[in-house]
Structure formats: structure tokens, C-alpha cells
Amino acid sequence: MSPISTKTKAVKKTASSKRPNVVVPEKTHGLGRELRGLIVSDKMTKTRVVAITRLVLNKKYGKRFKVTKKYKVHDDANATVVGQMVTIRETRPISKDKRWTIVTSS
Predict the structure, then answer these.
(1) Per-residue pLDDT tens over the stretch 72-104
(2) How is domain 34-105 classified at the CATH fold level?
(3) Could you report the per-residue pLDDT of 27-37, keeping only the tens digit for each?
């Protein structure tokens, strides 16, 4: 005997003319997360180290504190320098440590 499937197909909902304020987001499949941080090292060729600082809330006492994490980021043009703010995007593995690329710099 084969089991009876009770699953139903998901129905895609679209914005209709009755609801003009509904915004349908663009497809972002496969783009990965985007973070904003500060370049702290540019000593490697085509690689930058970006520090991402975020606030974390202590569960027990409710105090906020800063947590900084450093990411190795691919910069193909070697265009950025220490001290610049950049936006980085998650991508496929480029090397052992690099899984991020620079999207924009300011």
C-alpha cells in the first residue's frame, strides 16, 4: 500500500488592485546577507579585513554591550583602504577564510 499524501501545494499570493499599499519584494534568491562595517586591515592582496560591530542585550540584566566580529572580505580591485565604511555581501567560498565580497564603499 502506498501512503496517502495530505500535503497541499503552496499558493503564491500577489498584490492585487484592491490593496495598492502592498509592496511585493524583488527576488533576492542567492544574494546572501549584507552587512556594513569598517575596514581595519588592507595588508593582504585582494583581501580586506572588515570589523562588524553590533549591540547585544544581556538576557539577565538587560544591559547592551558591543560585540565586534572580523570578516575576511574579497576586494578584487584593491580599491578600498583602512578606515573606509563598506557594505559586504555573503557569497560562495572564495578561499579557506573568505566568504564575503565588497559591494559598496564610502
Answers:
(1) 999 999 999 999 999 999 999 999 999 999 999
(2) OB fold (Dihydrolipoamide Acetyltransferase, E2P) (2.40.50)
(3) 556 678 999 99
pTM summary value: 0.70
Query: Residues 6 or more apart from 32 whose CB is under 8 A from it?
Result: 89, 90, 91
**Distance of CA 12 to CAs 5, 24, 30, 60, 94, Å?**
21, 12, 19, 42, 35
Domain boundaries, the chain: 34-105
